[in-house]
Structures are given as C-alpha cells and as structure tokens.
Amino acid sequence: MSRVFIWNCQLPRIPSSWREHLHDFGTYASGALFTLGWWFFVDGLVMARTTEDFPVKFGFEDWLPGILCTLGMIITNSIDLSLLREDSFGYGGSGLAGKAKLTLFIGIALLAGGVAGSITILTIKYIVPQVDASVLYIGFTNVIQTGAILLSSIALWLVHNLDYDNQYNFVLN
Question: Which member of 12, 26, 68, 92 has the greatest number of CB atoms within 10 A?
Fold first, then answer.
C-alpha cells in the first residue's frame, strides 16, 4: 500500500543545542497559557461579584466551558501519538488504536464544545442584551479562558508527541 502525502511541511530548523530544551520550554509555555486562561476567568468572576448592581447573573453555565475545556485537555494529552498509528485492522487485534482514536475524539469534542459554549454565553448573555463595555469584558474573559486552554492543549500535545526532526508529514492511508 502506498502512502499519499497531503502536506509535506518543513518545520524551521532548530539548533541542536535548543532541541533538548524544547520539550521543557513547550511544557512551561503550555502551563503558562493554561494558568493565564483560568486567571482571566477568575478575574472576571471577582469583578462580577464585587460590582454593585451587576446586570448579568453569573452562574454555573459560566463555569461549564472552562471545565469542559480542562477535561478535554486532560483527555487529549493522555493519548500518545504512537497509539494512533497502530495499523492492526484484523478481527483478532486488541483494537487499541480505535479506542485511542475514540478517546482523542471525545477530548477534542470537549475542547471544541467548551470554546463554542463560551462564545454562545458571550453572545446570549452579554452581546444581545447590549450591556456596557465594562460588563462586556467579563463575558470576554470566558472566551479568553477557553481559547487559552485550547492553545495550551495544542502546544502540550505537539511538544510531547512530535519527533524532533525537521519534517512532519501528514499522511493519508
């Protein structure tokens, strides 16, 4: 069976002295993005709770997108890329690749649902009622949170699963 290359992406050349630290730097950058996302959300929560006569009720639906994205990040980053490449499609196989792909799909669906939920909450609770700009910031903190967690998850998965060669091939089997 021949492989068809969809994209043949050349990654920038990384000096060999940096390659050994790329894994650590990516992990720290991912953690910083994750922390920044939750920090924005807590900032919006504190502003909503301390503002007198706040026009929008802050409830569990505001927490849910961040929780979904965090669960999606944990699930997505628990999958090793080598598990997805298993090519045993027989009836006697363990089916590990299929289970790993299903688990990865669920994690990505949670991440996407969290981002979509935060945009929906921003639209329904803050943009449609046309609240003030100071109140609108609190709606944007939820979107910033889920976007930062999504980027953090992508960065962490790439750093832990990519080989450190200069080329990454997307292959269609």
Answer: 68
pTM over 0.90: no
> How is residue 129 annotated by DSSP?
T
CA distances from 165 to 13, 46, 146, 169 (A): 9, 45, 31, 11
Q: Return the SS3 of 122.
A: helix
Residue 165, C-beta contacts closer than 8 angstroms, at least 6 positions apart: none
Neighbours of 18 (CB within 10 A): 10
Give the residue carrying structure tokens 């090519």: 87
29, HSE (Cβ side, Cα atoms, 13 Å): 14
